[in-house]
Amino acid sequence: NHEEIVVIEGDGIGREVVPAAVEVLDAVGDFEFVAADAGDAVKAETGEALPQATYDAVADADATLFGAAGETAADVILPLRTAVGSFVNVRPARAYPGVEAVQPETDLVFLRENTEGVYAGHEDRLSEDLSTLTRVVTTSAAERLAAFACEFVADRGSDGFQVVHKANVMRETDGRFRDAVVDVADANGVDTEEVLMDAFATRVCLDPTQFDVVVCPNLAGDVLSDLAAGLVGGLGLLPSANIGPDNALFEPVHGTAPDIAGEGVANPSAAILSAAMLLDHLGYGAAADAVRDAVESVLSSGPRTPDLGGDARTDAVTDAVIDRLA
Amino acid sequence: NHEEIVVIEGDGIGREVVPAAVEVLDAVGDFEFVAADAGDAVKAETGEALPQATYDAVADADATLFGAAGETAADVILPLRTAVGSFVNVRPARAYPGVEAVQPETDLVFLRENTEGVYAGHEDRLSEDLSTLTRVVTTSAAERLAAFACEFVADRGSDGFQVVHKANVMRETDGRFRDAVVDVADANGVDTEEVLMDAFATRVCLDPTQFDVVVCPNLAGDVLSDLAAGLVGGLGLLPSANIGPDNALFEPVHGTAPDIAGEGVANPSAAILSAAMLLDHLGYGAAADAVRDAVESVLSSGPRTPDLGGDARTDAVTDAVIDRLA
Ligand SMILES: CC(C)[C@H](C(=O)O)[C@@H](O)C(=O)O
Ligand SMILES: CC(C)[C@H](C(=O)O)[C@@H](O)C(=O)O
């Protein structure tokens, strides 16, 4: 009757940062960890980047912690989002005191639609010259996302949220998305501001403090949250959550970092912060806050891995985080 | 037998910055200017944001200088791109010495596919709940863009270009785009580097000097060039060109700026730099360089409009640019 957490290290530094995050989870709770494989390495061995057994384990678990996959990233992460029934990808992007950032005041959360848009992926080769992709937008997906956003801003203590879209060009599809999101927010008494996707890209660079919680279609959320990652100093510190109605998958936003993989110097912060989101999801809010505080404390005055200008190893940072857990 | 340039001021500060750019063109060459209407104001009067007479004038001209349109922007600019047969939108994004920028080393040019992608705009309302948009990608459009890019990098003295895409998700459509662009570059001995759209957003924030000439699908070019605009300090200084086989339209990237419209304090630099791109296009490369040098000189040591922290008026800046023309 302990919660069952599937753990997928994947490739590259996933094999270093996921064990670090599991150590932290072990330090704050009593979980049953179930290891599963996915990514380039298992594909090389078995021919499949995402074995059925892994898919099934993820679908049945209480939550999954995933590291990173290399070339096969899309083959792994897109089906796993489906496995947990995820309708929203939660991507906080904040700068940390003491960590160099292009815009050190950045503190945003993207709520990315996680099932459709161009990711619905109906593509056709219509002629030698011409291919098409059918972008799919439903009112029901936008409404579910918006309902989540309304609860999210209430929990965060925010006044409302921004809705990003490109409805001046994609009038029917992004118009539908915008209208559905705004209608749900209105019905819940939550304020919204509409921002065109291109204007958002300019404005967030100039002054990220204009934004707080940002609700986006799938591809917009992918690109704009990665933009914000650039503003806070890179992907190294960013966690993310793929949330479904009764299951979820957590992953650092960074990739496999092949240049440093295997050296034991990967920064475990993003994976540990992803574990904190997992704790939140399972209802251990106090433990989640303790983990975030410990990571923040180590980032500002503890050992640092080389990506942050230090020379500490992954396990030294992990030990420091565990030491500082309140 | 002077070149005929259609001049569309449009709305808001378009009415201030376009006349400034026309003054500069008048100072360096002998052109026949033909005024035409488009935008919110003409729509309020006539019901049409883009009168047929304007469309025809643009289609028949040697080149068009356009200011900005308000709410009707998409109804104006998308058909006008078609009117000039534009297949590429050229968007330089560079920072200027003396102008505050998030990333002052930025000096990029985006070459944006200008005819298809999600802008091809086949949208359908399939049910109460569901709408679709058909994204269109052809090899022929990608090849034409790539051929332009190969000439462009040669003129610029660049080694090659980056190709941005999201072919890990849009495998068939962006895969087609990427393959066609890379094949043309290979055949011309031009180096290419592939960058995923989301990774580009992160990397360009962290270090824009990694990039030089960036070839993109339509929506990616829209969003990523606006991102770069944020890095150089805003849209205020950015010109753009919509190039077709034998016609073209030039416009500042900024909009109508309703907050300052009518006050005579709009920054005319982006419109004047757009006029410089027009001069290049008509074959007056020396005049184009002279205009760019004059604008740069005024930006670093001349009168400044309020957006750049000064208190000069539009005409003072314009006069200064004309004074400094070599
Ligand atoms: C690997 C890729 C398919 C994925 C996406 O585009 O969603 C990644 O960029 C992400 O954002 O998690
Ligand atoms: C007004 C709009 C349709 C247009 C576009 O998306 O192309 C604008 O953002 C631009 O980039 O010129």
UniProtKB/TrEMBL annotation, chains A, B:
Q: Which organism is it from?
A: Halobellus ruber
**SUPFAM superfamilies for the chain:** Isocitrate/Isopropylmalate dehydrogenase-like
Any Pfam family matching the protein: Iso_dh
Tell me its family: Belongs to the isocitrate and isopropylmalate dehydrogenases family.
Which named protein is this? NAD-dependent isocitrate dehydrogenase
The molecular function terms of the Gene Ontology recorded here are: isocitrate dehydrogenase (NAD+) activity
Q: Where are the transmembrane segments?
A: none
Q: Where is the Isopropylmalate dehydrogenase-like domain?
A: 4-321
InterPro entries assigned to the protein according to its UniProt record, in alphabetical order? IsoPropMal-DH-like_dom
Is Oxidoreductase found in the keyword set?
A: yes
Keywords, ordered alphabetically:
Oxidoreductase
Domain of life of the source: Archaea
GO biological process: any one?
Answer: isocitrate metabolic process
On whether DNA damage is a keyword of this UniProt record, the answer is no
